[in-house]
Amino acid sequence: MKIINLIILFSIISVLHSFGQEDSVLVEDIYVEPIEEIETFGGTRIINGHSVETLGKGVLEFRIEHRFGDIAGNGGGVQTLYGFDQSTDIRFGFEYGITDKFMIGIGRSKGTSSLGITGSPYSALLDGFFKYRLLSQKEGESPFSIAFLGTTSYTYMKASTDSASVSHFPKDIYRFSYCSQLNIARKFGEKLSLAVMPTMVYRNYVASNDVNALFSLGGAFRYAINSKVGIIVEYYQNFQSETVRTTNTNSLGVAFEWITFGHNFTVNLTNSVGFGETQFIPYTFQDWSKGQFRLGFCIGRKYMRE
Fold this sequence. Notes:
The chain is mainly beta. It contains two helices and twelve strands.
């Protein structure tokens, strides 16, 4: 009897062990390594505008941006040390990744009202935005990355006493401007990234020869020299009614980007003077062909959550 019991016990253990081996093989057979998302641009910004990229969950980034004066033309040259004597705009801001696909940010800019007709009518600007990644480029799954951007800006400058001025602000709501954008990007191989950014800017209060809503189509590319260094070009083409008599021009910038661990450095040349879509899209008046372009830089520092 003891021998029979031992035989039965041994049989049960053997069967259970064989089931365990089959389960282990089955788990290994169905495991699929996740497909990595393809990063199209080196940071959350291109030059003036946003990129399709978002910060990772729990990542905080502090950004400092600066623009100098005209390098050439009537306002530049050796008398202003090619624009270094002037500061057209300064911005600092904080951005944070709520999730890997959703981020928010706030910032403060000096504004460009001191430039007169060659800048925006605003100073002391606050801005805020949110960006949500709708789709990520993945090999064999999605050929594009797509993100939606919503931004707003508010000026707390002292209102003008001139009732005909845009900065008169008879109502506080007139101090707000808005922007919505769909950012579509794709990386081709290891070097080239392209982006298209259809954008709508809406200003609550404009001059009599202007319109509240302005559509602009942005485009950009980045060429990676290596894993840390890249060259970027960004352009926004404005589309407005023939009845609008403003003299604004289209924003064009070129930049050199250098990425290190936790830092992103960008040195750029652009004809724009202000920061943010509600500023550089409707309020760029400078012309590259007249030497009205300036040196700028951005330093971004990321802080990772432990």
